[in-house]
Amino acid sequence: MIAAKENASRLTPEEYFAWEEQQLEKHEYIDGQVYALFRNHKSGGSKNHSLISVRLTTLLANHLEGSDCETGNSDLKVNIAATNNYTYPDISVTCDERDKATTQYITYPCLIVEVLSSSTEAYDRGGKFRLYQNNPALQDYLLVSSTRIEIDLYQKTDTGNWLIINYKAGDAINLKSINLTFPIEQIYRNLTLDPKDTAQLSS
């Protein structure tokens, strides 16, 4: 997703929550400013984006069934810890008991997933990731291409640094935050992708 400023006036968090309930679109809230979310539908990737999001959400939810963890889709806000900022990732997972006390958002996700498009990639890799790094419970940040078989995993190390792991066709993704490993082909099979990637899936 990418955000466009909705108006110049600043809102308190309480005003933002009350105002957004009356809107047809979702809005992120950053430093008192409200931003409408939209996708670039010109790229032809919106169908892939939807299918990838559903597959990943289902995969994560099934894996975590019966645990204390919760999987949220793109309708669930994430509060940036120690701030009044709120964003909408494509998928989030929390295993933190403190998040059970809130009904409109979570604050302590251990895993966040963003499905990329040409209009969102720079924001998801840059400004949005910098915001997410303020969440102390976050261990895995997964960036998933919607046009080719490629996933980047930003994984927090024991020293607090972020290790970037690039996955391509034939690889298995390892999410330490929820103890899950799965083949990358599970996400991309039968999608319309770059011809080279489609050939790799068929081989």
From TrEMBL:
SUPFAM superfamilies named among the record's database cross-references: Restriction endonuclease-like
Domain Putative restriction endonuclease: 13-176
Pfam families in the cross-refs: Uma2 (PF05685)
Entry superkingdom: Bacteria
InterPro entries xref list: Nuclease_put_TT1808, Restrct_endonuc-II-like, Uma2
PANTHER family referenced in this protein's UniProt entry, alphabetically: GLR1098 PROTEIN, RESTRICTION ENDONUCLEASE DOMAIN-CONTAINING PROTEIN-RELATED
Protein's recorded name: Putative restriction endonuclease domain-containing protein
Species this protein is from: Phormidesmis priestleyi
